[in-house]
Design brief:
single chain, 103 residues, mainly alpha, two-stranded parallel sheet, 5 helices, 2 strands
Length: 103
């Protein structure tokens, strides 16, 4: 998240919190804020590095990627809305479960 705040494109292993904050940059749709690889497959790591180098050399794509990095939002304002949605869904599911059990 610190890298994104400074407009730096992260290259991360697809694991845990890193895959929650980084989305793979797509040069065609201009979506994404970094690069991810799966460490299980060594060639995937190398391919990700080579792809990031191609994007870096393409200034139009690189600038779009950096803008996406700057726009990444990991604030508690956004997170609290997502947590509230999850809570409401959980409560609704529990209420529906109780209705089903009583019937």
């Amino acid at each position: 998240m610190i890298a994104l705040a400074y407009g730096t494109a992260p290259i991360v292993n697809r694991t845990g919190g890193l895959s929650d904050t980084t989305t793979y940059y797509n040069r065609f749709t201009k979506e994404g804020n970094g690069f991810m690889f799966n460490i299980t497959y060594g060639e995937n790591f190398v391919q990700t590095i080579l792809n990031s180098e191609k994007i870096f050399k393409d200034k139009k794509n690189w600038n779009a990627l950096i803008q996406n990095a700057f726009k990444s939002n990991f604030s508690w304002n956004k997170s609290s809305v997502e947590y509230e949605k999850m809570y409401n869904i959980t409560v609704l599911n529990k209420q529906n479960e109780n209705i089903f059990i009583r019937s």
